[in-house]
Amino acid sequence: MAATYKAIGWNRHKVIYDLIALTGVGLYIGGFVVLTPMLNPEAANTSPEILVISALGACAFFLLHVVLAIGPLARLSPAFLPLLYNRRHLGVLLFIVALGHGAFALVWYHAFSVTNPLVSIFLDTGDYQGIAGFPFEVLGLAALAILYVMAATSHDFWLNNLSPRLWKALHMLVYVAYALLVGHVLLGAARESGDPGVYAWVTLGGFAFIAGLHLTAGLLSWSQDAATDRLVRDGWLELGPALSIPDNRAR
Hints:
Number of strands: 2
Number of domains: 1
Radius of gyration: 23 Å
Order of helices and strands: HHHHHHHHHHHEE
Strand order of the largest sheet: 1-2
Largest sheet: 2 strands, antiparallel
Shape: elongated
Structural class: mainly alpha
Low-confidence stretches: none
Number of helices: 11
Helix content: over 70%
Strand content: under 5%
Oligomer: single chain
């Protein structure tokens, strides 16, 4: 019998999960557009279009931190397991928001030229000879391509047909995308803002948070595995004395 797949196997938990995620994204983008000119005098004269582009980019970068944090948090505490259950939905939403940022920025900054917008990203945006002038748009485009592959292969169909090992290796590219986006932010938004230090510290703080979570979760898993190994002797797992088992229970 051939395996059958559904686009999304909806249930109550998934609906609530997605509604909360969509509401959070809407509030983040709306709050960014409204509050940024109020809190930052230098952004008071920024056009609404640029504010939306910035809001989409900031939201996508924040979502990526959430996606990367869920795994180690779930290993540290079972309370975060509900977030892990539908993390792939959050990953797809991350790609959609990032795509909105990239598409809007491409149209706004590159569409009003005789050069093809995609070509202009590689030819007209910076200096490949050094880090300071490196075209941050290229880093963002590369990260977006990785996020697309991950979103497109997030369904169980690909998990089963690519094999779990290959699927896992493919989705580990999220860390490559994260590194690319750190560079995208530091060379882009941070460099072009009035206060690049704030962007730099926030970005590095996010990196430290994610790295710290993964390190802590890894150490916890290592200690748990080591404790289990100490219990195993000659292929047996020590549970306690046999006499401690009530009659007719050791079956």
